[in-house]
Amino acid sequence: MIYSLISIVLLVGLDRFSKILAVKYLSGGTPVTVIPHILGLRYTENTGAAFSMLSKNTDFLIIITIVSMAFLVYLIFIKKYGTVIERALMTVVLAGGIGNLIDRIVSGYVVDYFEFLFMNFAVFNVADIYITVGITLYLVYALCEEYKNKKDKKNG
To answer: Catalytic annotation on 59?
Structure first.
């Protein structure tokens, strides 16, 4: 449990730091190419969720995020749900949600700055990476565990 708290503080801190740098060095400026034709940095202010869905519905997004994060807090810290791996992945998702929630509450928008240059894709941030990677790995883990359990039942 203490590891989850420390992880959340560190992950949210990294997200906040990256957004502070984005505001300082990218806002009002020209986009920067990091890896030609692959990755760039471009400052945007997103009032919506993923892919700017629900733009200008900040209050609704704040409520949904708080409810979702409260549910993850319940699962991780109160119920102690799942394996160590599942709780670690939920912790990563929780940190991402908190990072973007802070932006929405403080600024009314989320600061985004990573941009794929090789395709038309949403501009995103570190917190978005936490959420996407955490959920994806959680689903992969759950599917692998399900497969393993079915295989064990069949052989046992």
So the answer is: no
